[in-house]
């Protein structure tokens, strides 16, 4: 329902390129609810846990190096169908295949510099929010809820 959560992260290149506000703005404007947000420099061990399913890929070492090249902004967003809609808002993994109007389709070019992360399923959304925030997300109701949901 409306309590669905997804893990959205502005990657180091997104932070350096000044796109933190732009990415937050798109999720806020859509009507999603920010329930967790922090800037941090994750350890390699933490990133290896986050990307555990990609461990066997040839690009894995490069991915971990890039992801630990600078601070990231980790966020938990909540709302109806936020996982699937968040992925649609991010665009395809390879930015050259991302539609204009998506975050990746508007702001980047290379797959290894695709500026943002979004959970790929409801299960991984829960798992990743837990991995990055533990229990420390905020539980509050938006006073605009009845204007966003019927
Ligand atoms: P996504 O981030 O869209 O969920 P993913 O989980 O398959 O994509 O991969 C995680 C990240 O790894 C992705 O954002 C960029 C990098 N990556 C994926 N496939 C890659 C490839 N073929 N070459 C280089 N980097 C890749
Ligand atoms: Mg993924």
Q: What does this protein structure show overall?
A:
With 150 residues, the chain is an alpha+beta fold. It has eight helices and four strands. It has a four-stranded antiparallel β-sheet. The longest helix has 12 residues, at 122-133. The two termini are 13 Å apart. The model has no long low-confidence stretch (mean pLDDT 97). The site of 2'-deoxyadenosine-5'-diphosphate (DAT) has 9 residues, from loops. Residues 3-139 form the Nucleoside diphosphate kinase-like domain.
Offer a concise description of the structure.
The protein is α+β, with helices and mostly antiparallel strands. It has helices at 12-16, 20-30, 44-50, 60-67, 82-90, 103-107, 122-133, 145-148, and strands spanning 5-10, 33-40, 72-78, 116-118.
Major sheet: arrangement of strands? 2-3-1-4
The secondary-structure element order is EHHEHHEHHEHH
User: Average pLDDT, to the nearest integer?
Assistant: 97
Reported for the largest beta sheet, the result is: 4 strands, antiparallel
Catalytic activity: a 2'-deoxyribonucleoside 5'-diphosphate + ATP = a 2'-deoxyribonucleoside 5'-triphosphate + ADP
Domain Nucleoside diphosphate kinase-like: 3-139
GO molecular function, one term: nucleoside diphosphate kinase activity
EC number: 2.7.4.6
Features of the shown structure:
150 residues; 4-stranded antiparallel beta sheet; 4 strands; 41% helix; globular; binds 2'-deoxyadenosine-5'-diphosphate; binds magnesium ion; NDK-like_dom_sf; ATP-binding; nucleotide-binding; transferase; kinase
